[in-house]
Amino acid sequence: MTDPLVLHRLDPARPPPASLEAWLEALPGPAMLQVPGADRSRSRALVTLLHGNEPSGLRGLHTWWRAGLATPATDLLVIIASVEAARTPPRFSHRHLPGERDLNRCFRAPWQDAPGRLAQAIMAELVALGPEAVLDLHNTSGRSPPFAVSVLDDARHRAFASLFCDHLIVTDLRLGALMDAAEHLFPTLTVECGGSGDPQADAHAAQVIHRYAASDNLFGALPASDTLKVFHNPVRVELAQGARLSFDPADQADVTLAADITRHNFDLCRPGDTLAALGTSGLAALVARDHRGRPVLGELFTSHDGALTPRQPLHLFMATGRADIAASDCLFYVAPVSDNKTS
Ligand SMILES: [Zn+2]
Q: Of 60, 102, 114, 288, which is least surrounded by CB within 10 A?
């Protein structure tokens, strides 16, 4: 077991092996790579693999490095975080190590456990560097177009997000994510590149890394009002305690999601559209709370002939096609159209 306190320094002169899997096995543990840029007076940070089951950022980095590590516009610090979780068999299937906390919930005290100390070490490196921006690359668990997430909505974050995505989610939820902690010090953006294992998400991650490294000014391009869609505080829709969820109508579960639910990610769902079939307990099988913890299920949804349908037009995000993730994390997020500020 490598020491989780140490971010091992990788040598930019020694490119990784041709296979991503061989590289992952050879990494000394959580690692960092410092790449000198054309402008040595500025720096940026790129963080990836905070979640061990979200490999697109690592793949993109592997591609970029194998292609010769083109000189970035500014110095670039790359941090590869949950190496141990990623290579715990089966590879790229563990969000975090079994029995440990989710690293991307550990960027606030307490720091006592291993993921807490790693989060603290990552923050310490960022503080020491003082980058002009921090970019954190993730995958969603279900198929989804790429989108950005930030905790601030201003012209700089909109310009930054529009370099990579057409959608920006702004959240007031503070979970102890890197983004929450880093934003106090540096403009910070999370980019969800699309679903884990989706080759399009891998390609998008590679493009994001290229643009992030190569752009001279991350904050200069103000997006036209119609190119970046901004959504504030989406609501998490979760399974109620004890309720059962399935994708198979034959299971007669409390909630049966449509097998193609992920096709609707970022779609607008209207009253009358069926998002799920409900069992005998009806809407009681679900819980939806806004970012202040207020229950809002009844405001947003109704049950019509045993079908879950919106009461008002809702944008749907981050639906997953995996029953275990839908049951343990959430079914999807929704944002009412009235809250969607696109100005
Ligand atoms: Zn993630």
A: 102
